[in-house]
């Protein structure tokens, strides 16, 4: 590989879900019922927390996903403007099976050490070879079960 070779791609921040009015009505009913029950039992803080959480959840559900820029270069993996140097990446995995290929990296971060990002089908093998050429170990990883639960709930 050339010393200045790099791979670049863009992908949506998250897969956009189509949420109908029923979804928002269900959210509103759950939040209102939960907060009313909290106020009845004098748990005002929890009631307020439910209301704030419901409003934020509704706002995030309306928000359109941003287009994220990814780059693999000589220094590391760049996500938007943040660089993950190869020395801080413990391992990686390119999941090709399924409808959308994903790149997983295990970093040294304490909070959420495994980061997943969508990749283009044509780039999956190139990314794997690029990471291996940088002496990053390959380790099979998969999506956390909580992501699958959130996906089935429409998040």
UniProtKB/TrEMBL annotation:
The reply to whether Transmembrane figures as a keyword in the UniProt entry is yes
UniProt keyword annotations, A-Z: Membrane, Transmembrane, Transmembrane helix
Parts of the chain that traverse the membrane: 23-40, 46-62
Q: Does the keyword Membrane apply?
A: yes
- Know the name of this protein? DUF5673 domain-containing protein
């Amino acid at each position: 590989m050339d010393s200045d070779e790099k791979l670049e791609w863009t992908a949506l921040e998250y897969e956009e879900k189509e949420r109908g009015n029923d979804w928002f009505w269900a959210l509103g009913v759950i939040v209102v019922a939960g907060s009313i029950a909290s106020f009845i039992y004098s748990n005002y803080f929890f009631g307020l927390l439910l209301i704030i959480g419901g409003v934020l959840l509704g706002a995030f559900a309306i928000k359109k996903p941003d287009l994220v820029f990814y780059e693999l270069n000589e220094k590391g993996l760049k996500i938007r403007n943040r660089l993950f140097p190869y020395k801080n990446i413990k391992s990686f995995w390119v999941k090709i099976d399924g409808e959308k290929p994903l790149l997983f990296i295990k970093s040294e971060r304490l909070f959420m050490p495994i980061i997943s990002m969508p990749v283009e089908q044509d780039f999956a093998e190139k990314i794997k070879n690029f990471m291996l050429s940088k002496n990053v170990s390959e380790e099979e990883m998969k999506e956390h079960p909580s992501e699958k639960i959130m996906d089935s709930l429409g998040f």
